Amino acid sequence: MKESRNEMKNDRTSKSSSVSSLPLILDVDDFKGDFSFDALFGNLVNELLPSFQDEEADSSEGGGHGGNDGLSNGHLRGAAAAPLFPEVDKLLALFNDSYKELVDLRKQIDGRLYNLKKEVSVQDSKHRKTLAELEKGVDGLFGSFARLDSRISSVGQTAAKIGDHLQSADAQRETASQTIELIKYLMEFNSSPGDLMELSPLFSDDGRVAEAATIAQKLRSFAEEDIGRQGIGAASVMGNAAASRGLEVAVANLQDYCNELENRLLARFDAASQKRELSTMAECAKILSQFNRGTSAMQHYVATRPMFIDVEVMNADTRSVLGDQGAQASPSNVARGLSSLYKEITDTVRKEAATIMAVFPSPNEVMAILVQRVLEQRVTALLDKLLVKPSLVNLPPMEEGGLLLYLRMVAVAYEKTQELARDLRAVGCGDLDVEGLTESLFSAHKDEYPEHEQASLRQLYQAKMEELRAENQQISDSTGTIGRSKGASVASSHQQISVTVVTEFVRWNEEAISRCTLFSSQPATLATNVKAVFTCLLDQVSQYITEGLERARDSLTEAANLREKFVLGTNLSRRVAAAAASAAEAAAAAGESSFRSFMVAVQRCGSSVAIVQQYFANSISRLLLPVDGAHAASCEEMATAMSSAETAAYKGLQQCIETVMAEVERLLSAEQKAVDYRSPDDGIAPDHRPTNACTRVVAYLSRVLESAFTALEGLNKQAFLTELGNRLHKGLLNHWQKFTFNPSGGLRLKRDITEYGEFVRSFNAPSVDEKFELLGIMANVFIVAPESLSTLFEGTPSIRKDAQRFIQLREDYKSAKLAARLSSLWPSLS
């Protein structure tokens, strides 16, 4: 390659020399690497243009203006001087040669590329051939590997089969060996009934007890299974029967041996237990687990615990909870005693659990037996002494606590025993349903719990009523006899409804509801019990407040009887009349006192009902919601229970109105004088003050109704005052019909009506206010002249009938011939 390159260079040199004397050097290497055309061109022309390079350097140093001048001068001198670029011909020759050289170089490169392509093609063919041969070789190698792997797999499977056969053969040999050994032992046990003296040393060696127990159990299982199979399959064949009889002997001997072995192990277990040798106990327990799954060992261990066999432990339990013999145990003391005792039991069970975990192979089963024994024996024995179920026929007396003490004891014991069950569950009790077992301990008490709770509430109510009656009797005896009227008042005050007593009823019920919640795990059962207990409260409150209202009504009735007894008659002597008037005053005082007492009873009745309603909303209603209709039924029962009290209150309020109106009529009758409304025309200025009767009546009403304003509220107050206002209006109309009025008397009447109207305005009863306003209008019939009567009622024609009755009371009714005049004016009323 180097030689050819030199030849190429020489050829170019020779060719260029024929054209120009300047050497021309173009090589392929000039185009390699970072090729620059400017550099190539410079290398070609630099040798031919040295003067141009100098001028270029001068022009760059001298500035642009000199160059321009020289150029312009040279141009001007171009006609006479030499050419500006004399090397043009050489450059043209150089460029032509360079072009030819470039063409030659391209041909050379093309030739070389062609040769290289041919060479690459040959080499590629050789490479492909080599790769094909390699692929064939690799395929053969893979085939060899596959055959080798298949062979290895086949050999492995064969070896595994051989291993399985060898293992099976070894297992069969071992089984056959064990079977032969077992048959030999079975023949020993099958020798003669009850003969255990000729057995192998294995069965008498204390060091091989575990092995002997295992073999004995296998022999028993085999013999019993064979007897069963023979009896089912071929009981009629004599050979089978003989075989069965022989195995029955073996079974009997094996049973005797197992019993004897089990007893030996239990004795060893007990000895180790006394010495607290846990390893020996564990060894015995493991062996005993082969006999009935170790049940006898578990039960034996639990039964020998001191808390189950020591009588002193039982007595100590009773003393710690019930205290000294003969003393009345209180629920709080019992709660403390049970807490202490149950903590001791839990600690004891926890200590036993540590031993059981270290000794028995199945500790959970032992713990289940232990906890069950604790609840069924130790706890049950205590509960039997603590909870003596009373009879519902002969209730225990209240002096001994009554049914309430029994219920409180049951609640305390149940709650504390549940806590014990949870603690024992935390310690561990296997699969035992300790909660269900605890429930069963109280099943006898819970079955009749609702009946006992209701009977207890009734007993408490009866005891409270007897206590209140005794207190009232004691107060009555201490005050002595002070007169019939005053005695009635005192009795009424001493037998008033007490909100404190009703609050006590609610407190009893709350306590009963808390026990219902404790004893009733299911929402439906809880709702049923709560409804029954709440019904007891409704009955108690209803009966109590109804009786209280009836007692208050009795006072009103007695006061009414006193009034009727001292009604003033006619043609009485002055002395008798004075005595009767004094008695009437006393009767009026008794009526006023009874009125106040009844209003206090009504107020306390309302407060009591509100307490019950609030208690129902806060504590009862949410417990009734799980059962459809229970809430609505209780609301209906509550309304029904209070209806009797509402009836008594309504009747009593009617009596109160009668009492008030009777006293109003008495005052009007006693105080109202004929001259009040028919004052003489003596020239003296008329009296614009209310009459004495009006003043006394308004003062009485203000005084007596003060308690009504306080006691009544809402619609009850509005209805009562409206009815009283209507009765007062009617009573005043009837009262004024007894008098004759002159104009000055009419003014006095109008003043009385204004006084009454101002008072009844405090009733806030619009209908009553309207009636008294109309009364004021009608009073004008006594004031106006007769000829003005026709225009007096033009705006209020509805009262013309009552106005006509008033007009008839005018002093000049006959003299002014008002009857005829009214007939012509109001013919419809004539």
From TrEMBL:
The GO annotation for biological process reads:
exocytosis; Golgi to plasma membrane transport
Start and end residues of each stretch annotated as Disordered: 1-20
Q: Which InterPro entries match?
A: Sec10-like, Sec10_HB, Sec10_N
Q: Which Pfam families match?
A: Sec10_HB, Sec10_N
Record's keyword terms, sorted: Coiled coil, Exocytosis, Transport
Compositionally biased intervals (Basic and acidic residues) = 1-14
Name the domain of life: Eukaryota
Gene Ontology cellular-component annotations: exocyst
| Residue ranges constituting the Exocyst complex component Sec10-like alpha-helical bundle domain according to the UniProt record | 211-820
Domain Exocyst complex component Sec10 N-terminal: start-end pairs: 89-205
Q: Which family does it belong to?
A: Belongs to the SEC10 family.
Q: Cross-referenced PANTHER family, in alphabetical order?
A: EXOCYST COMPLEX COMPONENT 5, SEC10
What is the protein's name according to its record?
Exocyst complex component Sec10
Q: Which organism's genome codes for this protein?
A: Lithocarpus litseifolius
